Amino acid sequence: MGEEGTIDTSIRFFDPFFGSEPVRNPWVVVLALSLGPAVSNGLARFAYALILPAMQSDLHWTYTEAGWLNTANAIGYLLGAIGTLWAVRSVGAGTLFRLGMLVVTLALLVSGISRDIGLLSFLRILAGLAGAPVFICGGVLAAALFPAGDGRAGNAIALYFGGAGAGLLLSGIVLPLWFDQAGPTGWSIAWIALGILSAFCVPLTWWASRQVGGLPAGHSEPLLGVWRNFLPALIGYGFFGAGYMIYMTFVVAWARNAGAGVGAVIALWSLLGLAVLASPFVWRPLLTRWSGQTCLALSIGLTGCGVAVAWAMPTNTGLQASAIIFGLSFFIVPSAATALVRSSLPKAQWAPAVAFFTVVFAASQTVGPIAAGWIADRSGSLSSGLLLGLGLLAAGTLAAGAQPSRALE
After folding, report:
1. Which candidate, 109, 163, 173, places its Cα nearest to that of 134?
2. Is the pTM of this model over 0.90?
3. Exposed e or buried b per residue across 321-331, where buried means at least 16 C-beta atoms within 10 angstroms of its C-beta
4. Is 204 among the domain residues?
5. What range defines the domain where residue 283 resides?
6. Total domain count for the chain?
7. Do the domain assignments include residue 249?
C-alpha cells in the first residue's frame, strides 16, 4: 500500500483492464470512482421513478405496491450497509466496492425477465444490498486520495457522490423517449438497457478502486462513540433518508398526474441530473470553508425546499425549479456526512463510521416510500405523500443543526 493520501501504483501489474503506467492525477481516479454512484444510485435506485409509471400501468399496481418495490430496494440497502459495517474490517473497502458493482449490474440485467412482483422485489433487494457497499466504500476511497487537512478532500468527496447525476441525466433522457415509443410494456427492456450501461462502467470503477492506497483496516471500537458523539447528525440523516426517498420515488408520477408529457418528464429528470452534477462545484466554497455538520443541516434544509416547491407548484415551471433545488442539495448530504466523519475520526475508523451512518440512513428509507404510498392510496392523492416527505426533511434539518461543531477527540 502507498502512504496516506497517495495513489497506490504497486498493483498495476495485476490490472487486467489498463496498462502498467501509473496514474499521476487523483482527480482522474475520483471521476472513475464516481461511476459507482452513477450506477448504484442513478441507475439502480432512482431510475425506478421513471420506470414506475409504466410498471404500475402494465402490471396494475396500487401506489402501495409501487412504493413497496422501492422499500424493498431500501431494505436491501439497509442489509448491505450492515454487512459493509462488519465486512469492511476484514475484506477491505476496495474489494467490497468492486463486488458491489458487479452484483448491481447483474440485478439490473435480470430485472427485465419477469412480471412476478416476488422476483422483482428480490432483485430490488439485491440491487440495494450490493449498492450500499458501492456508495459507502467509494466515498471512503475518494476521501483517502488526499492527506488529512487537505481542503481538496471535501471537493473529492462531493465530486464522487455527484457522479450519480450522470446516471440521472442519462436515464432521464433515454427512458422517457423509450416509453413514448414502446408504451408501458417497454419497462422490461428499460431494465436490461440500464444493466448494459452499468456493465460498461464496471471496468473503469474496478481500475480506479485499485489506485487508492493508505487506507488502514477499520475496527469496531469507534461504533459506540459514533452513536454517542454524532447522535443529532444521525437522527437528521435518518429523517433525510425517509423524506428524500419519497420525492425520488413519486416525483415523476406526481408530474404525470399534473399533466406532464414526455418532454416535461425529460426536462424534469435531466435538470435533476444536471443539478446533481453541478452540485460539487456550487457547494465547493462551503465544503472547503464550513464544517461538515453545518453543510449537513443546510443541505437537508435545501432538499426540503425542493420538495416544498414541487408540492406547492405542480406545474412544469414549478417542478423544474423543484428539480434544480433538490438536485443541487440532496447528494451534498452524504458528502457532508462523510466530511464530518473524516474531520472527526482517525482514518482507520472512516469506513465503519460512514457505514454506521448509512445503516441509519438505509433503515429510514425503508419507511418513506411505502408510508407515502399508503397515505396516497387512503387520501386519493400523492399530495399528502409529498407533504409527509417535506415534514421529515424539516425535522432532519433541525436535528442535524443541533450537532456539536467540535471535532471528536
Report:
1. 163
2. no
3. bbbbbbbbbbb
4. yes
5. 24-401
6. 1
7. yes
